[in-house]
Write a structure and sequence with these properties.
Number of domains: 1
CATH class: Alpha Beta
CATH architecture: Alpha-Beta Barrel
Distance between the termini: 21 Å
Strand content: 5-15%
Order of helices and strands: EHHHHHEHEHHEHHHEHEHEHEHH
Radius of gyration: 21 Å
Bound molecules: zinc ion
Helix content: 40-55%
Number of helices: 16
Number of strands: 8
CATH superfamily: Metal-dependent hydrolases
Length: 384
């Protein structure tokens, strides 16, 4: 099934680096692994199916033979400015809207918003990265109650503040089992966090009672304003304890009647827990599954497995395309092409099995690639 006519809404992506120079082959490779280990970053990554597909695709995009040497491909890429790379790749991939987590890369390295917007020209909304805000507020206030008051008032009208929803990386910090804590536990955690601020000038939020309690403040605001909340799930660098990164850990949130109105978006297809993610999207009305195709760094076949589980179990209205692209536009670009191929393959299977008619399959693709995200995040204007 050819889905190239559907302009995708990338419901989970990040800014580009302002400086797109590759830095040479070894530095270029480091962008395509979640590993912190130098040998993996500079050498082993080149042997992955993902990286090979990326370089073959990039060579073709630049008009070179697919088997070209990495250095030759990077030399050709170096001829293009950041704006040319972004606008060319966004248009080649037919990207029709973006939902941007501005929490990474850091603003001093990211391409300015106005430059990006004028280069790619797509409708856009941003998400508020919660843990960065928590860290700032804890560094600012000496009393926990003042942190909560400040947080709560900043979130009194999130859309008016310029955000279409929240993004949490609790899965990278203290885990997804978000609890309600005794005040004494929260106070102890706050004292420890403030000691970090005193010693280092900032805090990296690894204190579970504190992080969980502040997340509850945000979830209450999200429920009141019906804002989607994205949770990083599963695959990531080894800061994530993957043993504890299953989306099933979010049971407390899904079972809490106070949060029934909060669309909870499970990121990265929950890979490797994609069956668990598909199950949640099939049983909780407010659970949505993000299918991301730029990261995780996988073969097309493995991304097709993730897609098959999602389309096999969950309602199509609960699935949303993304790239999770960050820093280089290749991830946003190849993610869109890969996503269409994986979704097209799975829909072909559903049609040949007799589950869906061709028209129903195309309508499902349209929902997952664009329609669901456009509606859920409230992208500006009407969908083309
Ligand atoms: Zn991301």
């Amino acid at each position: 099934m050819d889905l190239s006519s559907i302009g995708v809404v990338d419901n989970h992506c990040h800014a580009l680096d302002a400086d797109q120079s590759s830095g040479g082959v070894a530095a270029w490779r480091t962008r395509f692994t979640e590993s912190p280990h130098e040998t993996m970053q500079t050498t082993q990554v080149a042997d992955t199916a993902f990286y090979r597909r990326l370089m073959r695709s990039l060579a073709s995009y630049l008009g070179l033979p697919p088997e070209s040497e990495e250095q030759a491909i990077l030399d050709a890429r170096e001829q293009l400015s950041t704006e040319q790379l972004a606008s060319g790749m966004y248009s080649d991939a037919n990207i029709a809207g973006v939902v941007v987590d501005t929490g990474y890369p850091p603003p001093d390295r990211a391409l300015a918003r106005a430059t990006f917007d004028s280069a790619v020209g797509t409708p856009r909304v941003d998400l508020l990265r919660l843990e960065l805000l928590f860290q700032d507020l804890i560094a600012t206030h000496g009393r926990y109650d003042d942190v909560v008051d400040d947080l709560d008032s900043r979130l009194s009208d999130v859309r008016a503040a310029g955000f279409a929803g929240f993004k949490s990386i609790a899965g990278y910090r203290t885990g997804l089992s978000i609890d309600r804590w005794q005040r004494t536990d929260v106070d102890d955690a706050f004292v420890s966090a403030r000691a970090d601020v005193a010693a280092k000038g900032s805090v990296r939020l690894g204190y579970k009672p504190l992080l969980d309690s502040l997340l509850h403040v945000c979830l209450a605001r999200a429920a009141e304003q019906q804002l989607p909340v994205q949770f990083h799930i599963g695959y990531g660098d080894p800061d994530v304890d993957l043993r504890k990164a299953s989306p099933l850990e979010l049971r407390n949130i899904f079972e809490d009647p106070a949060y029934r109105a909060v669309p909870i978006v499970l990121l990265h297809g929950c890979w490797p827990y994609f069956r668990e993610g598909a199950y949640l999207a099939a049983v909780y009305e407010n659970a949505y599954l993000d299918l991301s195709y730029g990261i995780p760094f996988m073969s097309l076949a493995e991304l097709t497995s993730m897609t098959r589980a999602a389309f096999g179990a969950a309602p199509f209205g609960k699935l949303m395309y993304s790239s999770d692209g960050t820093r280089v536009p290749e991830l946003h670009w190849m993610g869109a092409h890969t996503g269409r191929r994986a979704i097209g393959r799975v829909l072909d299977e559903l049609v040949s099995d007799g589950d869906l008619s061709v028209d129903q399959a195309f309508a499902a693709a349209d929902q997952v690639l664009a329609g669901n995200a456009w509606r859920l995040y409230g992208l500006p204007g009407t969908r083309p």
